[in-house]
Automatic annotation (TrEMBL):
It holds the Pfam family MlaC. It comes from the Bacteria. InterPro entries: MlaC/ttg2D, Tgt2/MlaC_sf. PANTHER family: INTERMEMBRANE PHOSPHOLIPID TRANSPORT SYSTEM BINDING PROTEIN MLAC. This is ABC transporter substrate-binding protein.
Amino acid sequence: MTLMLFTGAVQAQEVNQKNPYEMIQDVAMRTFDRIKDNQASIKNNPEQMRTIMKEELLPYIDYKFAAYKVLGKYASKVERDELQEFVKVFREYLITTYAVAMNYYDDQEVVFEPASDVGDASYVVVRAIVKDPNRPEIKVAFKVRKDSKTNEWGAFDMVAEGISLLDSKRSEFESIIRQEGIQKVIDLMQSKIDNPVELEKEMDLKESA
């Protein structure tokens, strides 16, 4: 498979949410470049990673859809106010999760697969490889869906080396919801949000999330 090298400085132009491949590459470029340019300050103050994720990634993440996917069958079984609270807290939880997961990046080469014809599709997977001369390559993929009302694309899951962030969270939360209720999961997520960001130079979504 031919891959597209992902390099270059952050561009001032708007992100094109009408094309999922362009959107993911543009957002990734802005995010990775900002991390690279602020390595020293991030090391001294890891909380900056949360700010970067909130400003660069979150606007292009369909966190509501992601929250519903994580809840699975329980999304239709919990009270409306609990569901709204879960989505609200899950939004902040994603920011924290990506702040830790994305810290593996420190100026590696990132290559994306070339764009394909989307056609009438409402769901695509955008794949990439993170290349590091000192560490094994990391295969990542971003699952993206199109909003039927706005026709704009938004990412809802990241898969690293075959590990889906949403699948791992759904597996973890399901037993807790079944045994202790959704409020327990909300409290656990809030606890993670309230704790300082601890950065590790490993790409392990299960541990970092």
